[in-house]
Design goal:
heterodimer; A: 90 residues; alpha+beta; Alpha-Beta Plaits; two-stranded antiparallel ribbon; two-stranded antiparallel sheet; 3 helices; 21% helix; B: 262 residues; alpha/beta; Rossmann fold; 10 strands
Chain lengths: 90, 262
């Protein structure tokens, strides 16, 4: 699963940056297509629901989706698995 | 039936301001409705006039947008004609406590099988931020530029005294608890009243030193006192600090119900 922000619905209130327990949402810098400054995702693969929803078979956490007043946050199905380049920090 | 099916997709994005709490409450309500597995043709949303009452227009099931303060009489009619329907009322503090105050008291007295969700944003948001009966003491609004000098209405206490079967109060910050409360409210026979404190950063926050949405959410987080803690404090003789409010499930009882399921 993949976390996405719908740019047509988001109004840039930044409530998601406050409620996410992993601090995945960060305040954006540049305005989106409708002129609102949309939050950016910082390593969204840390999201519990992205990783574990299929294993548990139910929605986990979901604070951002429930809090978002504009119904802009959702999860979409991802392609099976794509290789990521991992940078190991020592 | 997924959660997205309960939203009326062609009407979104909605007209609420950025950071308005009403959208959060709409999410929680529709999630509770979806988790309960209600049938869309047998669920009716009724609302009056105001920011909060726009919410019924964004649901894809049957919805009634009625006259100011008269959401509860309309909902009573729907419930009595179709007792098998689940009727959920969206209403605001100005709608429910000011112009519709008497309807609210008598709906609680009759104990009709409705779920009333009151989005209390402490102000008349849609008409430009006038003071409502739920504006806190000392708050600055368009009509009270020197601070509100009247005491606010405690809607949960009114509902409890008038005889509602289920009364709860949460804020738009406590989303999980709110969803649980709405689910319990729909399941409970009789009138279930859920008061939700919602933020209004545009009309209320900007005049009361809470211009940012995050400041209003922080205010809810610090000022909400759980019912258990409030009771322990009261037993120890510590009064509730000014500005704080009790959240939690306040009343649950099984009084006789009007218009219940056949």
């Amino acid at each position: 699963m993949k976390l996405v922000i719908d740019e047509r619905r988001c109004k840039g209130c930044n409530l998601c940056t406050q409620v996410c327990p992993y601090r995945i949402f960060q305040e954006g810098k540049r305005p989106g297509p409708r002129g609102y400054v949309i939050p950016v995702l910082d390593h969204p693969e840390r999201c519990t629901n992205c990783r574990l929803q299929i294993m548990y078979g139910r929605q986990l956490c979901g604070m951002c989706q429930m809090t978002c007043p504009d119904q802009a946050i959702s999860w979409i199905e991802e392609k099976p698995y794509e290789a990521h380049k991992v940078v190991i920090e020592y | 039936m997924t959660l997205e099916d309960w939203y009326r997709q062609d009407r979104l994005p909605h007209i609420y301001c950025a950071g308005c709490g009403n959208g959060t409450i709409l999410n929680c309500t529709l999630r509770a409705v979806n988790e309960l597995g209600l049938v869309q043709d047998r669920t009716t949303f009724v609302s009056g006039i105001g920011c909060s009452s726009r919410a019924a227009g964004y649901t894809s099931s049957d919805s009634l947008h009625t006259t100011h303060g008269r959401a509860l009489p309309f909902a009573t009619g729907v419930k009595l004609v179709k007792p098998e329907n689940d009727v959920i009322v969206f209403t605001g503090d100005g709608d429910l406590s000011a112009i519709g105050g008497n309807h609210f008291i008598h709906a609680c007295r009759r104990n009709i099988d409705l779920t009333v969700i009151c989005m209390n944003n402490n102000i008349y948001g849609m008409t430009g931020g006038q003071g409502s009966p739920c504006t806190p003491y000392g708050a600055i609004t368009t009509t009270t530029p020197y601070g509100m000098h009247e005491m606010p209405f405690d809607l949960c206490a009114v509902a409890e005294a008038a005889g509602a079967n289920y009364v709860a109060r949460w804020t738009s910050f406590h989303v999980k608890e709110l969803t649980e409360a709405i689910r319990t409210g729909i399941e409970t026979p009789g009138l279930s009243f859920i008061e939700v404190m919602a933020q209004c950063p545009t009309s209320f926050g900007s005049k009361n030193k809470m211009k940012q949405v995050s400041q209003m959410i922080d205010m809810f987080r610090t000022n909400a006192v759980l019912k258990g803690k409030a009771e322990r404090d009261r037993a120890a003789g510590i009064p509730l600090a000014p500005g704080k409010f009790i959240v939690g499930e306040l009343v649950r009882r099984s009084n006789p119900v009007l218009g219940g399921r056949p």
